[in-house]
Structure formats: C-alpha cells, structure tokens
Design a protein that fits this description.
The chain is mainly alpha-helical. It is built from 16 helices and no strands. Helix content is about 75%, strand content about 0%.
Length: about 300
C-alpha cells in the first residue's frame, strides 16, 4: 500500500510545509478515527490527504470543545473557537497561520473548490457545544446535526467525486453524515452524560418515559431501565431509516471512492447491530465492532483496490 509520502506525491503536494501540515492531519485521523481511517485506506492515494485534512480539522475543533482535561471553562472554549474561525478565514484568503491543521484544510478547500460556508456552519454547531447541554425536540437537534454532521458529508463530496451532477448526490451525502453522527450519539450516550450533555431529543425520549435523570440513574447504578431500552430501540430504528436514505448515494460516487464509503457505511451500521446485541445497555459501556468483523468488511475491498491500482 502507498506510504504517507507516496500519498502526498500522488496528490501533487510538494511544498515541505504543506506536506508536514497534511501529515499532522493524517496522524489525527489515524489516532482518533479508527473506522474512518480504515475506510480512507480504500481511497485512491491522491484523494487521501484531502480527506485527512477535513477529518483533522473537525477533530481539532472537537478537541477544543471536548478536552475537559485542559481546565478551560465554557467561555474560554468559545473564545478558542472564535479564534479558530478567524484563523480559518485568514487561511482561506491565503494568509499564513500557525496551525498545520488549518493550513492543510485551507489548501484542500482551494484545491477542490469546497464551499467555505460549510465550515462556518460547522463552527456554529461547535459553539453550541460550549453552552447547550440538551435538545428539547428532534428539530432542535437537527439544527445542531446539520452543522456538526451533514456539512461533513457535503465537504468530502468534491474530494470523493461523483458520476452524477454533484447537487444530486448532496442529499444522500448529508444524510450519511447525519446517520454516522446519530450512531455516535447512541454509542456514546454514557460518555456524553459525563460531559453534561444529552444528544438524544428529549421529546422522543419522553414518549417512552425517559428523561435526563433516568439516564443519569442508569449511568450511576450501571443498570438499564426497560424504558431506556425501548427509547434506544426507537432511535436505532430511526437512525437505520437515515442510512436507507443515504444508501443510494454510494452508487453516485466516483468508482474510486465507492469502496471507501461502502466500508464506512457498513461498519458504522454494524455499531447499531452491536447496540442491539448488547440489549441497548450502552449507557454504562461503549460498544465496539469486533476486529474480526472490521477485517472481514475491509480486507476484501483493500485487496481489490490494491489490485486495481497495480494492473
């Protein structure tokens, strides 16, 4: 498989500072985006650095919000996000900035003509994380998820390429971003409670007799109430419906990108299967897709992709 340097060569990234910036983003993806990084290996080498840059930027902003070990309060985190936004706009306009992550993502935006407004929407949702701790309705959560997830699907679409007009593929791409995000919310509900947040719509939880206090009780006692199980089963079903809306988008992608997205689609969907297999007892632990399943999904695609490139 191509090395990190070969990926940069394939992408035509020759400037040493830029190569270092993209390498930083690749390291972030490798360290934190376990499923995402595996799927990225299925892309053609020239596309990988851009995907690493987009992931790296999202992770960089997310760390500002979620790294509770640095001792910053909500106001300081909000200020850091504002500074990030200022630096990002400056980098978009060609200014030199200190952050290698911002340098790489700004270069990616220029190379692929990605809509800068998508990053403004993303940062708006990240700012919400500094003061919003719950969402009363599905509509309220949807506004957050648009910026935190749907726009990610729209950002990567120009890099992946399409065989249809891009506007036709945007709906499924946005839906897939939302499906991935909702899967994360269901998997990480306990960890999010520890941060003081609930990313599940309160109105849908209430329909099953669930509120934040009951979720906290489950977290504290390491027990799972039947009402929580029913609520999570409902939310798993609605998330599966989002995956179904996203599914037609895979065939709309450039052939060189389909295996990557199909792999991520399958492995993230498998997280929902693991939640069901755990009988929805996810408030107290984080389910994972077993390595043998990950290998079974990814390895045949990796072999096929490698063979296609060497022929």
């Amino acid at each position: 498989m191509p090395t990190r340097q070969a990926e940069l060569d394939a992408a035509g990234i020759t400037d040493p500072a830029l190569r270092a910036a993209y390498t930083t983003c690749r390291a972030l993806n490798s360290a934190h985006g376990r499923t995402y990084f595996l799927a990225t290996r299925l892309l053609s080498p020239d596309r990988r650095p851009a995907i690493h840059a987009l992931y790296g930027f999202a992770r960089y902003a997310d760390e500002i919000v979620d790294d509770l070990s640095d001792g910053r309060d909500a106001e300081a985190r909000a200020e850091a996000l504002e500074d990030l936004g200022v630096d990002l706009v400056a980098a978009f306009d060609g200014a030199a900035v200190e952050s290698p992550v911002i340098t790489a993502v700004a270069d990616t935006v220029r190379r692929y003509g990605i809509d800068r407004a998508l990053f403004a929407a993303f940062l708006t949702s990240m700012r919400m994380d500094t003061h919003v701790t719950g969402y009363p309705t599905t509509a309220h959560l949807g506004r957050y998820v648009y910026g935190s997830a749907a726009v990610i699907g729209l950002q990567v679409l120009p890099v992946l390429g399409t065989v249809v007009p891009r506007t036709e593929a945007e709906g499924p791409a946005a839906a897939l971003g939302v499906a991935f995000q909702m899967t994360n919310f269901l998997r990480d509900v306990g960890e999010d409670l520890d941060r003081g947040r609930v990313y599940l719509p309160a109105d849908e939880l209430a329909a099953f007799g669930v509120d934040r206090e009951l979720l906290l009780w489950c977290r504290r006692t390491r027990r799972t109430d039947r009402r929580v199980r029913r609520a999570l089963a409902h939310l798993v079903a609605t998330t599966r419906a989002t995956y179904r809306r996203a599914a037609p988008g895979v065939a709309m992608l450039h052939p060189a990108s389909r295996d990557c997205v199909a792999c991520a689609f399958t492995l993230y969907g498998d997280i929902l299967d693991e939640i069901v297999a755990a009988d929805y007892a996810v408030v107290n632990r984080r389910v994972v897709v077993p390595d043998r399943r990950r290998a079974a999904v990814a390895l045949p695609r990796l072999v096929r992709a490698f063979g296609a490139r060497t022929r």
